[in-house]
Amino acid sequence: MSSLAEALRSAPVVLDGGLATLLEARGHDLSSALWSARLLRDDPGAVEAAHGEFFRAGAQVATTASYQASFEGFAAAGLDEDDTVRLLRESVACARRARDAEAPGGWVAASVGPYGAVRADGSEYRGDYGLSVPELRAFHRPRLAVLAEAGADVLALETIPCLSEVEALLTELEGSGHPAWVSLSAVGTRTRQAEPLAEAFAMAADVPEVIAVGVNCCAPADVLPALTATATIRPAVAYPNSGQAWDAESRCWTGVSAFHPDDVRAWVEAGARLVGGCCRVGPDDIRDLSRALGRWS
Q1: Alphabetically, which GO biological process terms does the record hold (predicted)?
Q2: Half-sphere exposure of residue 142, counting CA atoms within 13 Å on the CB side?
Q3: Which tens digits make up the pLDDT trace of 238-275?
Q4: First-last CA distance in the chain
Q5: Cα–Cα distance measured from residue 114 to residue 169, given in angstroms and rounded to the nearest whole number
Q6: Which of 34, 50, 53, 198 could cysteine-pair with 229, CB 3.0–4.6 Å?
Q7: 71-87 residue pLDDT tens
Q8: Tens digits of per-residue pLDDT, 20-58?
Q9: Which residue from 246, 198, 196, 195 is spatially nearest to 218, judged by alpha carbons?
Q10: How far apart (Å, rounded) are the C-alpha atoms in residues 59 and 2?
Q11: Residues making up the binding site for Zn(2+)
């Protein structure tokens, strides 16, 4: 099996959609602060089945259920460090089992969510942490180490809202030798803290482990403006949410979906080589996106 970086040189690769969205649709309660990471402890088979469903829909990459998983988050749920390491590894194992069963030529991306995800208060869409770069590095370091050794093909450093967290993650990544993509949650050409996206992508250009840069969990309409900021630094990654709004207090989505799979053509023309969806994007959407990509290419 070729590396994901090698595959991007020849054709766009289809990512999966919103794992938590699918798990909720299958009747699982994700209302706790651990979100989908709770099922790594309570029902890993459900996580594996969800990955398999996305692969059958045409996804070539499974993104693990580790977005909300952290040592701090699991500790708050009563789990010790050994349990946390085991569950982080299990997140990769679930995706690998689904990949081997449904799409042997595919890849597994270990999700590394932002610091705000552990707060479960929507701050990953604001970036108002009040933490320094060294503090953010200390938070991310142990989880990165476990996921990098767990057998994933790539790390997905995703939904990053601010430049300070980009800097922290890239500093920890550099020299590790493990491939990763860097994806921000953005509005137009700005981070969630209104900083230029181009600055984040420029920082990533100096880190050889980065195979792609781009955006995720933004509105679909924000993908093309954001991709203009990637220039030719790296291949681009684009996997927006449905365009609906997240209410962190009531923990629900509001509004109507604006995710249109046929938009993939414009994303690829703008430089995207990893394309898919995020929250509220299900297997049917990924199937349609994959078919649209096939029709065009």
Answers
A1: methionine biosynthetic process; methylation; S-methylmethionine cycle
A2: 14
A3: 999 987 776 666 666 677 788 999 999 999 999 999 99
A4: 22
A5: 9
A6: 198
A7: 998 888 888 999 999 99
A8: 899 999 898 777 767 778 889 889 999 999 999 999 999
A9: 246
A10: 16
A11: 217, 278-279
Q: Which amino acid belongs to residue 248?
A: A
Check residue 231 and give left, alpha or beta (phi > 0: left; psi -120 to 50: alpha): left
Taking residues 87-98, what's their average pLDDT? 97
Residue 221 CB: number of other CB atoms within 10 A? 13
Q: Which two tokens stand for residue 168?
A: 């922290």
Determine the Cα–Cα distance for residues 18 and 30; give it in Å rounded to an integer: 13
Binding residues: 217, 278-279
Cβ–Cβ < 8 Å for 219, 190: no
Residue 53 identity: E
Q: What is the mean pLDDT of the chain?
A: 91
Strands 186-187 and 180-184: unpaired
Residue 68 contacts residue 35 (beta carbons within 8 Å): yes
- Closest to 125 (Cα-Cα) out of 213, 12, 263, 222: 222
- Identify each DSSP E strand in the chain by its residue range: 13-14, 61-63, 107-112, 154-160, 180-184, 186-187, 190-191, 210-216, 236-239, 245-247, 252-254, 272-275
pLDDT grade for 178, boundaries at 50, 70 and 90: very high
Instruction: Say how far apart CA 108 and CA 99 lie, in whole Å.
Output: 7
Residue 236's pLDDT band, with cuts at 50, 70 and 90, is very high
> Could you give all domains of the chain from N- to C-terminal order, each with its CATH number?
4-290 (3.20.20.330)
